[in-house]
Amino acid sequence: MLGEGIIQGLLETARNFFGSYVEKDRLTTVQFPEERRPLPEASRNFPFLLYDGTDPDAGLRCVSCQICEKECPPRCIHIEKSKDKKPDFVGKMQAYPAVFDIDVSVCMSCQICVEVCPFDAIRMDTEFELSTTDRFGSLLYTKRELAKSNEYYRKIHPTEAAECDARRAKDVEDTKAKAAAAAAAAAAKAAQAKDPAAAPPPASSASTNGAAAPARSEVKENQ
Amino acid sequence: MSNDLLEVDPIAGQGEIMEVSMGPHHPSTHGVFRMDVRLEGEKVVRLKPVFGYLHRNHEKIAEHGAYLAAIPYTDRLDYLCSMTNNWGYCLAVEKLAGITVPERAEYIRVIVAELTRFQNHAGLVGFLLQDMGASGTPLMYAFREREKVLDLFESLSGARMMCNYMRFGGLRVDATAAWLDEVRRLLPALPRFLDEFENLLRANEILMARTQGTGRLSRELAVSAGVTGPMLRASGVNYDVRKVDKYGIYDRFDFRVPLGDHGDVYDRYMMRILEMRETVKILEQALRGIPEGPIMDPKVRLRGLRPKAGEAYGRIESPKGELGFFLISDGTTNPYRYRVRPPSMINLTILEDMCLGQNIADVVVTLGSVDIVLGEVDR
Amino acid sequence: MSTLPPVEDIKAQIEAGVPGAVVTVVQNGSPSAQHSLLLGREHARDAALFLRDHAELRLDFCSLVTGVDWLDTETSEKVKVKKVVEGPDGTQQETEVEETRKTKIPGYLEAVYHLFSMEKKHGPVVIRVRTANRADYAHVPSLTPVWRSCEFQEREAFDLYGIVFDGHPDLRRILMWDGFADFPMRKDYVPPDDDALATVPHGKSPEVQA
Amino acid sequence: MNAAAADQIFVTLKHWALVHTPASLQVLVSILLTIIPIIVIFPAIFALSVLLERKGLGRMQNRYGPNRVGPFGILQPIADALKSLTKEDIVPRSADHVVHYLAPLVLVGAAFLGYAVLPIGRNMVAANLDAGVLFFFAIGAATELAVFMAGWSSRNKYSLLGAMRAIAQMVSYEIPLILSSVAVVMMSGTLSTTSIVERQAHYTATLAHWNVFTPWGLAGFFLFMISGMAETNRSPFDLPEGESEIIAGYFIEYSGFKFALFFLAEYLEIFSISGLGITLFLGGWSSPFSFFAWIPSWIWFFTKLFTFILFFIWVRGTLPRLRMDQLMNFAWKFMLPMALIVILSAGIWRFLPAQSAEMAVVRWLVCAVIIAVPYVVLARALEQGKRIEKRTYRYAE
């Protein structure tokens, strides 16, 4: 009969009207500045550069391999390699970025730079209140603005950071083991030279380097 | 396509023709879209869709980048359904390079794609009613549910709309057990929302009067014009790429494809409602069957993928219709030719045929029922 | 769902069904193995109609229309040629000498159609039609009269590649604006450097300037 | 202070003020004291109902609604007013400037004039005209002129479409609107709004003699309210401004304060139509039960008015918009015949005797059937004419 569906609809809106005062899950709106939803751990916004320790200049993990620059779909990363080198966390001499700019007005938060970085040097931030009054200049983030500490990373992405830390700790250990093995081998060689009869078996600990190893070789290939 | 309420039209053919340019700034064109409409009174005598305002030459951009770099750009095609866009592209690359996908990844793909379908259909129905002048109530109900789905996407992929989640050969990150539990918790709420929606609107006389018999599309024209998705099925053609191609693991799920008989706006609206119910069924099955295992084919090189020279066309059933990606490889790291088959744009081909002789108010409703997203139409 | 015969069979069927049609099978080297049929321009529309109306094929659904730009290519192949060379001892002797021969293949534009059947639920059959050259407006027959779905996609190929589809009912630019002169999807297209919204040039951050 | 004094407090105040003014100014002061409250109170209700509408719609849509300006957002109307006052007033270059300027003024003026004959309480009516109902409809028709002035002068295709829609709609719906009130006029035997209310302010047992308690009154009331909604361009009849089709209709080219005037006029019309509906069918300022008669009459009037406003908001939050042809169809093929039948039913009611209780019940039933049967027939015809149906769908496996 004419009007039946209309009355049904009216009842439904009335139910929602009163329901919105009673049932919490009807109101999905959050009163933003006062009330903030916790961001999920996977949340991502714009990239930042990680550094270890307290000094952003000394501890910056980036070795300016420029993979992210090349892979970035909108090409918003600009890197200039340093002339000199400095030791990285395992003690290997590596270049560092003299200039590392990200134009976040161009960046589309796709996270591909994070995925391709073999050095765990670039990660996604969760900070989203980034408005500026200047259209271009303040949205061009330089190395200094981008550098954030590992502690910050642990705070915003705890699970991911723990994995990353474990991987790096293993790297350090492997390097140490490698160095120790190399030292042992050298010592053995020296001993062998003295006494060829007592030769130890060759060191086997230097082979495992986990996920970082193939990535590293890839870096060389690309360069 | 006669207007049954105005059977007698004594001044037909004598009236003055008024040209109205609907859009690009118009509240109901779903973005920057223009229709050059010629009106005789309020009756449409000609309608030419004009678009390209959002054109950014997506295909050229993708041809300039590596295979990996195109994935985040596919998010921006149909920006409401980034997950299915990712899937379409990844499927094409997988065909091109002969990559297999682990089972767990296939299940997660189905889950996120069906969630996408749900939120897209819910949003579309809301927008359609908004176009009919329902002052936002259905839209807000739809958005309330969509919000929950987007929250899930955010906690899975890190972003609500631009998910950039799938990779050729699998997925970027695994879904945690907690996430799957979240989806399980959400599932019962979805049919409840659909019931509410039906209460609000299904028997509503105004809705029926506005949509039944409006924007009719015949079966033959729909097939010839390559219309796909719910719009095609509303015209009574049983063609769902999920059933036809059985891509991914869709042959493992038990779901039905609703079909309409009239091909009008009401049927298109109901197709979406019924498909949402089927989607919930697929989700339930997928969540029951999801195995443990890897989510990425370890042999795949995401960076610097160099497929053998050749070409491949991969297509999926996106919420809007058949979303296809056509790739030609010349053996280098960049696709030689990258082409999207945008369902929204092709579904627009017959917009004029559907609108001729109708009221200007029906144009808006008919356009709303096509379900276009200008990001995809214009690319 | 019926299965589709191999492309060679379809080629034979077209050649039998459309008198005078020239059909070539284009092999596809990728694992997808979607081989395609190259139709001659003169009989392309007849062949398309044949494919659409054929009782077993019933390719009633043209899913995708693509323009592809193939630039002029130069292939160089190494050929071993026998030559008479003066030997070190002064005698004439025949030796095989490698020589590179360069062949210039003129480029062309190509329209690729992916056909499926909604009735039989099979596909894809890929057909290609090539233009004679890469001139500004290169012609192929339009298949819009066969499949309505080609209408916008052919317009798009015209807009972005400059392929003129003869017999298209409404061939105008579709994505670019009407006054636009070039064809941006062509491989040799150079975008004009007039981006008014270009951001700050990279490397000009205050740190560097200082 | 007793109930009667509270009831008549504004009347007494006005008298007191008049007594203390010099005789030469008394006429002027009397006029001002009548007009100024109307000009102040109804726009204040406008502000309040806009807030209510936004909050109510918000809650119906599971949102909060405005809640930032002041506690619970109650100062939102002030913020809105400030915004519209400070906005730039844009007049299209090709517009007819004079008419464009006049249209909102004429509209607001016409909207205010209707209040002259609305009794908002016992002895509280600005102008007690003998032909009050006629005056109201005559003034109501003047709004059509203003709407067309706005649509025409803007030189915009959408506004012209909107204006044409508005004219067609208003003219069509004025007929059932007037016809449904003819039944009341017929039964009351007067065109004066105050007399119509007074005739309803009697009680049998405890129940008032409101027209809405009779079958013809109930049907007439619904017809009146539906036509009223259409007359004031409220959802679901908001076609003249249908923002999803013709963007904002006839006031598309208005901004700032002129736009606010259109907005104000629209709500004023809603209030005045509701007020007339209350006067004709719901006993005006009288209470429904005799034991509530101690509540001051003006409180009753405004309570009823707010109930109406809330109902309008509720309907707006629920229904999609009709199409032009369906709207016309509804007016001419359903509303008009129904209004005529209501008149017939009222006539029969008038002449059927109702001395005993049984007779009264019989009379009630007879008149109800006279209305119900045509309703079923006409509704069927309307649905079949449009061929609308609930559908079932098949599935492919």
Structural class of chain B: alpha+beta
Uncertain spans of chain B, ≥5 residues at pLDDT below 50? 1-12
Mean pLDDT of chain B: 85
- How far do the termini of chain B sit from each other? 32 Å
**Average pLDDT level of chain D:** 84
> Hey, roughly how much beta strand do the residues of chain D contain?
under 5%
Q: What is the name of the CATH architecture of the largest domain in chain B?
A: Orthogonal Bundle
The quaternary structure here is: heterotetramer
**Order of helices and strands of chain B, N to C?**
EEEHHHHHEEHHHHHHEHEEEHHHH
Order of strands in the sheet with the most strands of chain D?
A: 1-2
- Biggest interchain interface, per-side counts: B-D, 54 and 45 residues
Question: Structural class of chain D, please?
Answer: mainly alpha
Shape of chain B: globular
Explain what the structure shows:
- The complex is a heterotetramer of chains A (223), B (379), C (210) and D (397).
- Chain A is of the alpha+beta class and 223 residues long.
- Chain A folds into two domains: 47-163, Alpha-Beta Plaits (2-Layer Sandwich); 176-222, no CATH class.
- Chain A has helices at 4-22, 56-59, 67-71, 112-116, 143-146, 150-156, 158-194, 212-222, and strands at residues 47-51, 77-87, 93-103, 122-124, 140-141, 147-149.
- Chain B is of the alpha+beta class and 379 residues long.
- Chain B folds into two domains: 4-50, no CATH class; 58-353 and 362-378, Orthogonal Bundle (Cytochrome-c3 Hydrogenase, chain B).
- Helices cover 46% and strands 14% of the residues of chain B.
- In chain B, the strands form three sheets. A three-stranded antiparallel β-sheet of chain B has the order 1-2-3.
- The model of chain B is unreliable at 1-12 (pLDDT under 50).
- Chain D has helices spanning 3-7, 9-19, 26-60, 76-86, 97-113, 132-153, 157-188, 193-200, 215-231, 256-281, 297-318, 324-351, 357-386; strands at residues 203-204, 207-208, 394-396.
- The mean pLDDT of chain D is 84.
- Chains in contact: A-B, A-C, A-D, B-C, B-D.
- Chains B and C meet through α3, α9, β7, β8 and β9 of B and β3 and α3 of C.
- β6 of chain B pairs antiparallel with β3 of chain D.
